[in-house]
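Researcher: We're teaching a course module on how sequence relates to structure. For the next exercise, students receive a sequence and then see the predicted structure as tokens, so they can try to spot secondary structure elements on their own. Here is the exercise chain.
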Amino acid sequence: MLPDRSPPHALADLTWPEAADRFSDAATVVLLPIASTEQHGHHLPLGTDGLLANAVLNAARVRLPARVSLVVLPPLPYGKSNEHAGFAGTLSLRAGTLRRVLRDIAEGVWSSGGRRLVLFNAHGGNHATLAAFARDARERRPSLAIWNLYAWDLLTADDAPAADPADLHAGSRETSLMLTVAPERVRLSALQRRDPAATREVEERAARLLRHGFAWLTNDLAADGTIGAAERGQAGAGRLLLQALGDRLAEALTAIADLSWPA
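Model: And here is the predicted structure for the students to work with:
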């Protein structure tokens, strides 16, 4: 006899009858992790956003009440990353391409019976495109509730000190999380070579340019691709951030599952 085990969360692990059973429950939360494949400076890998999204999701899943039915779709590893154009390895989708991909995925969720779709986004450059897509998708399929959750927006003032506005990319927060989630993938030698004076210069330039909604490209701010004090990243800070992000995502998914829908 096979041992009892909890139902798998990943759609890829389900058979189609098992998927049909999950989707038949209107309270099931279907979650699509969305990340990017883009440069993260000299010290972090191109897949950083996907690694962090997966870590936060895993932290949240163990905190979910048993009553929450969750189905996690295969992650989307590409996003709108043209702010990082010119850095080798950055693979960016056009906004229209990303919206069309999301539309097809959402249609598959809806036709399978899913009625609650969460776009769990780990890349800031995706946010505006996802927001526009979600509203259009709701107009097309009013019975499909869609939430656009950006990982960093989940944090509250009580969870962590406010982020430095110039800590935009591959800086202290992302580096701290990576030192917790995948320390073997952090190029410590590159971190140790970083010049704090050069970091301050980048932060000051970013603060000046970004005050009024400037449409920045990474090359406007930092030739090495790192915008923020990556050298101040610490594993201890990363552990606290990961716990807080997991807690907040679990709370959000529980609230979404408990919501009366269709209204």
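Model: If you want an answer key for the exercise: Strands lie at 29-34, 70-72, 116-121, 145-150. DSSP finds nine helices and four strands in the chain.
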